[in-house]
Predict the structure.
Amino acid sequence: MAVIAVANAKGGSGKTTAVALLATELARSGVEVVVLDCDPLGLAADWASRCGPQSRITAVTDITPGTLPDHLRRLNRPDRHIIADLSGARDTLMALALGLCDLALVPVQGSALDARGAIQVLELIQCIEANARAHINRAVVLSRVNPLVATRSLRTVRDLLMLRGMAMIETPLVERGAYREMFERPGTLYSLEGRQVPNLDRAQANMQAFARDVMARIECGGRDAHGPFAQLCYQHGIAAEGPCANDDRPARRLFQGG
Ligand SMILES: Nc1ncnc2c1ncn2[C@@H]1O[C@H](COP(=O)(O)OP(=O)(O)O)[C@@H](O)[C@H]1O
Ligand SMILES: [Mg+2]
């Protein structure tokens, strides 16, 4: 099980699209996926509800900073992944999700505005790391990338974020009509018919490579083998009992509010 938080303080950067693509691909690999829709707009939950029970994708809404840790404990199961779709608000819920995830995934389009939103998330991550003395595994994914040319602004944004120490998911999310269509019809990208949606096969291949890279990033874990929440819950099998005995685990302080 892994918890992935998808965040960018800028709206429209491709968070919900990345959540839907990742959920689709992880569910196809045979695990259950729960989307924690932390955005009051509820677009990710709407999409998940239209995927149907056979998709193995469900959603939870009305998440608050008070209920997020309980949801994570309750949903903790080896054959399940959790993806949190955050709103653009740089608030307590975002900070908590970033502090408890195994990977903070930050979608960024090739625009200075998106890059600034990503840097705000990065600064929040650094603040949590400094206070909790933890490492948060994080990576940028370039989104809505033109499949034919890398624009100058995209290259600038990529270089700026790498300079700031943001790791990059190798496969960018390409601009594809199919990634918009999937929000307009029931089912996942695998239930759209190729004839109705141009380049569906390329969209699926891009989604597969993206999900593979995201999971590889979680498995290699950045500097740590597991994120703070993994250390707290998954390795020690203490789903509901509360924090483990190791005082140095940062999530213990988060759960205790200290
Ligand atoms: N890779 C992509 N290809 C095509 N359209 C995209 C892509 N990523 C995002 N979009 C479109 O951009 C808009 C904003 O994306 P969205 O995922 O809702 O961003 P956010 O959740 O960050 O606000 C939506 O209309 C979405 O359909
Ligand atoms: Mg969204």
Remarks:
- DSSP finds ten helices and seven strands in the chain.
- The chain has a mean pLDDT of 85.
